[in-house]
Fold Coiled-coil domain containing 92B.
Amino acid sequence: METVSLEHQIQSVQRHIAFLKKEQMELLHALHLEILRLQKHCSELTHDLEMKELEARQQGKSTALGTR
């Protein structure tokens, strides 16, 4: 009788481990997707900032040339 109970406990623990592994893989996948999304957003913001800085420099040059 004790052996059957122990076998059930082992099977239960194995199911729990399998469940946790599956949950961990899903969480890691979701985190990876979030990292990719944030990297893309960061790249877009960096590009926007660089374009604004370029426009500001060009406006500064044209203003400086216009006052001469």
About this structure: The two ends are 100 Å apart (CA to CA).
